[in-house]
Amino acid sequence: MRAANGEAGRGVDGTARVWVGPGWAAYVGPSLRLAPHRGAVTCLALGLGTGDVLTVEVAGRAPVTAGSVLIPAGLRHRITTGPARVAFVYLEPRGAGHLECAARMSPVGTPDAPVAVGHDREAALVDSARRGDIATVRDLTVGADAGGVRDPRIAEVLEVLHGPGGAGTPTAELAARSGLSVAHLLRVFGREVGIGLQAYRRWARMRIVAAVLAAGGDLTRAAADAGFATPSHLSSAFRTMFGLAPSHLLGAGSGVGIVVHRDEAPSAPVDRWTVR
Q: Bigger pLDDT: 275 or 129?
């Protein structure tokens, strides 16, 4: 186990890394042969080889092929072809980086299967991701002026969910804290965040999983600390959200390093990362 200081500048050739920070997360590493899945937050996918492209399939729609693709939360999709190495940048609604990102891309698809392609800073994003410079990747993706969700009641709910023990906060308590009925909270949350409250809870729990693993715990401990009833419940939720088993990406022997950041900017990583 090595200290995380200086990790943002390390190269990632031949390795894989997962970074997790407030309002964002990222993966840089080999292409993962993902099964169809439905993400809980918006994802910017990048091909990292020269001329590499990604092909994203949505059932009943023509495939979308590009060097950078923005996939909205809740859209069931599959990356069917792609380069040897990829970057996935996950953008949470509380940071609203997906709005800044979408504004720099061209929309394609249909209203029920919307994606965007061709980030106007694609070359700089790819170069930074290749070098493992996740601070620059985040800054280029999110932008300096990205704000949170518009409704302060939902912003408060998101902060509770990401606080200590917050992922398990009962829905009735969240509704009471926001001054909404349960039914109204669920409607407003879905409108503001783009995905249902229960699906977003699973994302908040995955952040806890990453933190436990970064600190040296195993998947069994991570499942318990994140509020999953059993490791198999964690595995099922992870497959639904990311399209592969957690042991493949995060388990012992996977070769993936994990970095957890407490600050908004990832320039000064804390905790530890472990090459597994």
A: 129
Give the N- to C-terminal CA distance of the chain in Å, as an integer.
Answer: 9
* CB half-sphere exposure, 131, CA atoms < 13 A: 13
Higher pLDDT, 142 or 209: 209
> Are residues 18 and 126 in contact, defined by beta-carbon separation less than 8 angstroms?
no
Can you tell me which residue has the tokens 């999110």?
142
Alpha carbon distance 253, 62 (integer Å): 37
User: What pLDDT, in 10s, does the model give residues 85-117?
Assistant: 899 999 887 666 677 888 889 999 777 778 999
pTM above the 0.85 mark?
no
Query: What's the pLDDT band for 186 if we cut at 50, 70, 90?
Result: very high
Is residue 206 packed enough to be buried (19+ CB in 10 Å), middle (13-18) or exposed (0-12)? buried
